[in-house]
Amino acid sequence: MTKPLEGLKVIDLTSALSGPFCTMMLADYGAEVIKIEPLAGDQTRDWGPMEEKSGDSAYFAAFNRDKKGVTLNLKSDKGRELFYQIVKDADILVENYKVGVTKKLKIDYDTVKEINPEIIYASGTGFGQYGPIAHRPCYDVVAQAMGGIMNLTGYPDQPPVKVGPSIVDHVMGIYLTVGVLIALHHKDVTGQGQFVDVAMLDSIFSVLENATINYTVGHTIPQRQGNIDPSITPFDAYECKDGMVALGVGNNRLFEKFCNKTGLTHLLDDPRYSDNWQRTLHYIPELRDTIRDWCKQYTKKEIEDMMDDAGVPCGPVLNIKEAIEHPQIKAREMMVHCQHPTMGDIEIQGCVMKLSETPGSVDQPAPLLGQHNQEVFGISEAEEDELIKEGVLSSYRTED
Amino acid sequence: MTKPLEGLKVIDLTSALSGPFCTMMLADYGAEVIKIEPLAGDQTRDWGPMEEKSGDSAYFAAFNRDKKGVTLNLKSDKGRELFYQIVKDADILVENYKVGVTKKLKIDYDTVKEINPEIIYASGTGFGQYGPIAHRPCYDVVAQAMGGIMNLTGYPDQPPVKVGPSIVDHVMGIYLTVGVLIALHHKDVTGQGQFVDVAMLDSIFSVLENATINYTVGHTIPQRQGNIDPSITPFDAYECKDGMVALGVGNNRLFEKFCNKTGLTHLLDDPRYSDNWQRTLHYIPELRDTIRDWCKQYTKKEIEDMMDDAGVPCGPVLNIKEAIEHPQIKAREMMVHCQHPTMGDIEIQGCVMKLSETPGSVDQPAPLLGQHNQEVFGISEAEEDELIKEGVLSSYRTED
Q: What angle do the packed helices A167-190 and A18-28 form, to 10 degrees?
């Protein structure tokens, strides 16, 4: 079956998570992604978890599948020449260097545009290409702190807490993909390429739901509220016999179903709970405690089944093992097997967007260091060895 | 200036947040998005914050700018006919009904495909179109619970906590956009349309960084760790004189800069902190406490300035007001002014992806109820009034 991005050539200068997450999607859906690593390899080749027997990084393997891998010393003239050679007929380039580095390396948009005027050149950075702190380095936790999401996450009587996984890297990577694809449509229609600039800070700032307008229009500074929602009630997580369940009872119809199913029908006659807004105003402590007491009598599974039967949105708080093993996650193939040359069979995440005619899929393992040097640069093994000696390339073949 | 998605017609059957967030991006970047609301309007027209004088919803206004608005009673034959009429020449349709509803309404992909074989029909749902719990309703908190992110967020000695804002709705909305745009490239090249299926559960499950492979390859079940990172140290948030700062000291070079700037140079000679992995193993309690004590002596601003000077990733934990007013957020135009017919000047979020040649922008306010009925359906005011009487349309004109 054809993949939808087949025929597109992507030069991938990204490392760590955010950039590679973008080019991973492009690769899963069919683009030829050529990942260029420095001679020592992408830093994530040292990031855990490591597969036991090989000692190789599953982190690198997870986010670089379906890509080709080459190495290049971009500080050497020969390395730069090889880069110019392969970028000539590329459709897209993605990079996530700190602002200014590509210019120093002479691989910035202005330089590349001279060689390939129609290219889409996409940059993902901490703070974007301009603005007073554009020069600063950034990590996920810093963007979470400055973007406002950290202050909104956690319990009201506890300090702010970051979203566990590196959410900013992921969200930025997905936005970067959107930016590339919007530019691609424009290129498909007009032939014109352009520069795409996406920032970690902007990305996380844009997913705060109504927190921003609560300030600019509502004139309040929203605070973290644990698991409850500022405008929907009941909407919370509750302790039960063997863990926690989340409940979202978003309107009167659902509240009626909920009360009937739980037997808490007296709540339906209480004027304090007559509609969603009244319930929101009067949630704490009495309504909350009533639901808390009810939940404590049952297991997660019992509550989930009852709510499923009643048609009320509900789900258990799952740990990673439970989430991975959930039949819905399995049915959606959100974890897939991948045969890796050194690690063997590993299970990594699947493709999110299910396209009926041209689906994405995980077909190839992540490349070994410099695995596709000969193919991509059109050189023989002897020529590759020579360039390795000269410090222009590196390869897994000569590493051990 | 041309917008990149100009010329594309999008039928928008979405409500609440996730779907509208997707079509908002399509609209900001130039697509003609026709939002179809039920006669009573999108539920978010009742969601806060409400603008004081008009009493109208800033929530609706924020996520539906740049769209045209029509109303339709899709349960009536005439309403369905009008829908078939405008979907005929659409490029894209986006909907986020519960699974099965579009079929009941006879506006599902199979039906629409008969009228418009080349359409891209994109569905965003809680659990996707298939699988054992595909039928269930879902809210953000339920997907956060089941997707594993909630269990990974929070302090180790506290219960799991959800990400404050509705992150699943946002992430799913962005993925839905990626799905639409990948399908659009395929359509641009081949003319073929297709069905795009994206789920809230899949979306949030896919942004857990290495948590999933820590289980499948690393054979551990990762647990929440507050603000620290499982593989980078120091990487944490610290109390200072007037709040908290986040620090990301990701490698030896940065650790040296950090120690030199803070004067904690004795840490550099300590074998327990000789490299990132050693620091990660020996972070708690001594290294953590040393940095905690150092931070307590300074203000957020003082620490941020010192780290900026040293080139160490650092940023203060900002509340919403502070984030909105940050000069970087301002420079990036992440909040923009919008003139709304009933609310006046309101400040809502801007566009994330900065495209050099065909940028997106916020140009038009969100529509009033049924504002574009006449234009979109090609009917006169008298005809509109007649259809309103028949219960096929509704309009702000006849609401007060």
A: 50
Contact assessment for residue A391 and residue A398, using Cβ atoms and an 8 Å cutoff: no
- The structural domains of chain B, ordered by start, are 9-207+328-398 (3.40.50.10540), 235-319 (3.30.1540.10)
Q: What is the pTM of this model?
A: 0.98
The DSSP bridge partners found for residue B37 are B71
Task: Give CA–CA dist A246/A235, Å, rounded.
Answer: 7
Chain centre to alpha carbon of residue B281: 36
The answer to whether residues A134 and A100 touch, using CB atoms and an 8 Å cutoff, is: no
Token look-up 């990149």 returns B4
For the stretch B59-92, pLDDT in tens is 999 999 999 999 999 999 999 999 999 999 999 9
Q: Where are the alpha helices (DSSP H) in chain A?
A: 18-28, 58-64, 77-87, 101-104, 109-115, 140-146, 167-190, 200-205, 211-216, 252-262, 276-281, 288-295, 300-310, 320-324, 327-331, 373-377, 381-389
ipTM of the complex: 0.98
Using the Cβ of B38 and the Cβ atoms of chain A, whether some distance falls under 8 Å is answered with no
Residues 64-123 of B with CB under 8 A from A: none
Residue B169 designated active-site: yes
Distance CA B166, CA B42 (A): 18
What is d(CA B50, CA B309) in angstroms, rounded to the nearest whole number?
A: 43
- Give how far B195 is from chain A: nearest CA, Å: 5
From chain A, the residues in CB contact with B332 under 8 A are: 127-128, 130-131, 199, 201-202
pLDDT digits (tens, 9 = 90+) for A258-291: 999 999 999 999 999 999 889 999 999 999 999 9
The closest CB to that of B224, out of A164, A182, A334, belongs to A164
> pLDDT per residue over A2-43, tens digit each?
899 999 999 999 999 999 999 999 999 999 999 999 999 999
